[in-house]
Amino acid sequence: MRKRILYYIWIMIVCPLVGMAQINTDRVMSIGRNALYFEDYVLSIQYFNQVINAKPFLAEPYFYRGLAKINLDDFQGAEDDCSEALERNPFVVSAYQIRGLARIQQDDFSGAIEDYLKALKLDPENISVWHNLSLCRIRKEDYEGAKRALDSLIVISPRYTKAYLMRGEVDLKEKDTLSAERDFDRALKIDRYDSDIWASIGMLKLMKGEYKAAESNLNQAIYLSVRNSNLYINRALSRYHQNNLRGAMADYDTALDIDPNNFIGHYNRGLLRAQVGDDNRAIEDFNFVIEMEPDNMMAIFNRGLLLDKTGDYKGAINDYSMVLSEYPTFLAGYQCRAKARRKVGDVKGADADEFIILKAQIENQNGKRTSSKSEQERTRKKSDKDVNNYRKIVVADNNELENKYRNEYRGRVQDRNVSIVPQPMFVLTYYEKITEIDQAVHYYKFIEEQNRKKVYPNKLLVTNEETPLTERQVTKHFASIDEQTTAIVANPLDADKRFARSLDFYLVQDWDNALEDLTQTILCDGGYYFAYFNRAIIRYKQLEYQKAEKQFEDNGMGIKMPMKTADYNLVRRDLDKVIELAPDFVYAYYNRANVAIAMNDYRSALSDYDMAIELDPKLADAYYNRGLTHIHLGNNKLGIQDLSKAGELGLYKAYNVIKRFTERKE
To answer: What is d(CA 235, CA 254) in angstroms, rounded to the nearest whole number?
Structure first.
């Protein structure tokens, strides 16, 4: 009878409902927020839809659905949902924040400013709101308003380095380099390990023509953020101005390894390759640029020059002709085309081009044309469309501030904490995140045996790189719950079916039912250690979620609120049982070490990481976490050794952490 009741509750939750008001909206809302917190946006929207259909007068589900939509880049949908939330409750600060951000993404800066001003009336010390308001003022070119907002932000949070950087950028827009330098220096005194600060100082030095100093500052920025392609692009510019063409090309090579579609990287590398006589590879770069921007006449003209040099005169003539059709007064184009036409025997065409040049010279014979300052400069803005500047190195436009200091909304409290955190827990599931970097294959013999027997509907795997479900996968697991329930009703003691259904519940973020199934699995088979393992991870995630919610609701400042040790003891007991039943299951030791860290029991954590590494010497995550633990205890040398090993095994972010704890000598 109890199982039938559970089944009925499940049908009421996931199926189209007739009596929607009868569902437990608090429970469905909680599941939706679980899904949202763990970035399962498609799934969370489905749950919020159910609450809205049942109780359309509530503001909360509209707000959270808007938050999910903005993370899916549905900016209009997010704005509409936040408007619905504010109609029902005009005192929700977060709804103004999200609607403001959605409006920014749609270039409605006035609307965003209006939202942020309303939010500040309700929460006058909200750092994120002041941050975004400042960006909007800058985009509106209201520099005085932006400075006032940034001054207020600095009073509220004197150690918020982004405020100094943004104010420095505003200073630069107003040509006040001394004030900008002071702001950047203040930011640097607060945090010497922020790559953005060194990059900003480097760009300031570039603007002042201090190219050697610019290169030195950009070296430091790259040291702290080695995978940032823009830093290499900017350092290449500083090297170019010092006539270090090979060094500049090396930087463009690295930038394009990181970001193969970088326009400036390809264009400028093409120019430099042409200067050093590497014509064929220069053509490749310009081909790429033209594929990205088929109407980029300067790239087409440069390619024409290179085709001309390499003997492809017809190709060169075609490129010259394309440019001249767009710029019919571009005399250099006629000169080049005339020469190319003579090379292919088109004397008539060459004469026609030379006549146009002669006519233009006669028209200008009464005035001597001098080179403008713009023509004498070695660089041009990306937005510059003057074809006469085709040989100039490209630099980014000045309107990219909003990309450098991104709009902030910190709906997930852990995003406020910029401290280095351990690698996450492992879980038994069906999916893992696919990355461009080769991933380690996490293997355990019993998992493979279960997969060979096809015990579960999908291939089981162990991972700490979980991925959100697609809409199709969500539907699939809802249907699977129905199938597993039918099988369980037929055979209530089938532990495998119970565990399989727990995985479905877990994947759709219904943790209460997942925990119930895992407990029932253990009652059916006390040796089913997979159930203990996953029950531990769900309980741990519940604590993580509850802690984040408490932080967000109680103080909104990212201050960690202590949890009762007993909560974590419950998680640890489950992992103790896993280790008792399967002493070679390496991931249980790793997870138990993570729990020990959450309990501030660092010695126990080290012992468990030691055991995990003994069982699997290639488990990069264990080296990484053990390294962080050593550093926390003051053993930097041991910590850096472990982090180095983690990086060697493919966990490349370990190298950035090492830099944090290794002072670089200038």
So the answer is: 11
